[in-house]
Design goal:
By secondary structure, the protein is α/β, with parallel strands linked by helices. It has a domain at about 1-110 and about 260-359: 3-Layer(aba) Sandwich (Isopropylmalate Dehydrogenase), CATH 3.40.718. It has 11 helices and 14 strands. It has a 10-stranded mixed beta sheet with strand order 2-1-3-12-11-4-5-10-8-9, with helices on both faces. Strands 6-7 form a two-stranded antiparallel ribbon. α5 (about 165-180) packs across α6 and α7 runs parallel beside α8. The structure holds 3-isopropylmalic acid and magnesium ion.
């Protein structure tokens, strides 16, 4: 198969990890007789430097015309002083909205061989997916910074949800749960927020709307409790569905269960168009350019692209088991390295090469 992939390397460690993922993809293409055609496009800080805006029109155009988008990371201290709409992060939110990527899937899986890198003493089996609504809520609601009538500096953001925005993300979670163990926890703050009360109401309406969902075990959980349960007993979760900001926070929290944020891939999907695949971590400016980054979240994101956008299940599985074998052999980047017999510290390039060699 021939597939067109838009590549946004972005800033910081973005370029380094994308390079490794592309290596792995090319080896996979060669093995399975596919052709992946890459088009590099600008977004984030590099785009600001080169074009003056974080998300050039051209980037949106190329991404829309591609079969999928691979994204490294954007952002860095260099661009932190700019106005809100001129920050690298505005590019990321812009592309999510432009491609209508409302569903963000963040699988959190602890590989057996990394059990000792997990922060929990007895982690047990951790294999859950956070389904995060990605283009609504406080990230996209009305906002303002102003001086109030008494001269105090004030600012607000609005967390707004419409019923159809909740419906479509909940359906994604239900469909996913039916392919897994069928347990869905919907996370909200319905004891305080109106938007959460609507969220909860719509979740149950969707659940009761179809016989298809009867096999699902659905429950609600307040977000503060969910934050606690994730580190207390993560084994209870299968699919977590939640709004944008809660999902952002809970996914960083959940990532440390896998040993490191550097292990967490993600897929952002629309109803029909190109999906975007990116690690959950940021651009890590502190280690950028030093060959220290963990490329595995990026590589696992590429595997998700093969599975979810290209229907290449076997190829995706091949990459995932290659990652597992490399870890089993003891190779570790700094973020997951715990000094003990049998493991060895590796750089970003060496890690990427090792996974590529396992394909
Ligand atoms: C993420 C990131 C982004 C978000 C930032 C970089 C805007 O934290 O993908 O989780 O908050 O969505
Ligand atoms: Mg985040």
């Amino acid at each position: 198969m021939i597939k067109n992939i838009a590549v946004i390397s972005g800033d910081g460690i973005g370029t380094e990890i994308v390079r490794e993922a592309v290596k792995v993809l090319n080896k996979t293409a060669a093995k399975y007789n596919h052709e992946f055609r890459y088009t590099d496009v600008l977004m984030g800080g590099v785009a600001i430097d080169e074009t003056g805006v974080p998300l050039p029109e051209e980037t949106v155009k190329v991404c829309k015309a591609s079969d999928a988008v691979l994204l490294g990371a954007v952002g860095g201290p260099k661009w932190d002083k700019g106005a809100g709409h001129l920050r690298p992060e505005a590019g990321l939110l812009g592309i999510r909205a432009a491609l209508d990527l409302f569903a963000n899937l963040r699988p959190v899986k602890l590989f057996d061989v990394l059990a000792d890198a997990c922060v929990l003493k007895n982690p047990g089996n951790i294999d859950l997916v956070i389904v995060r609504e990605l283009i609504g809520g406080a990230y996209f609601g009305k906002r303002r910074t102003y001086a109030d009538e008494k001269g105090a500096r004030a600012a607000y953001d609005t967390m707004l949800y419409r019923d159809w925005e909740i419906e479509r993300i909940v359906k994604v979670a239900f469909r996913l749960a039916m392919k897994r163990s069928g347990n869905v926890v919907s996370v909200d703050k319905a004891n305080v927020l109106d938007s959460s009360r609507l969220w909860r109401e719509v979740v149950w309406e969707v659940y009761n709307s179809s016989e298809d969902y009867k096999g699902i075990m659905l429950s609600d959980m307040l977000v503060d409790n969910a934050a606690m349960q994730l580190v207390r007993a993560p084994g209870q979760f299968d699919v977590i569905v939640t709004e944008n900001l809660f999902g952002d926070i809970l996914s960083d929290e959940a990532s440390v269960l896998t040993g490191s944020l550097g292990m967490l891939p993600s897929a952002s999907l629309s109803e029909t168009g190109a999906g975007m695949y990116e690690p959950c971590h940021g651009s890590a400016p502190d280690i950028a350019g030093q060959d220290k980054a963990n490329p595995l979240a990026m590589i696992l994101s590429a595997a998700m692209m093969l599975r979810l956008s290209f229907d290449m299940d076997e190829e995706a599985g091949d990459i995932e088991s290659a990652v597992e074998r490399v870890l089993a052999k003891g190779l570790r980047t700094g973020d997951i390295y715990r000094r003990h017999d049998g493991t060895r510290l590796a750089g970003c390039t060496e890690m990427g090469d090792a996974v590529t060699a396992e394909i």
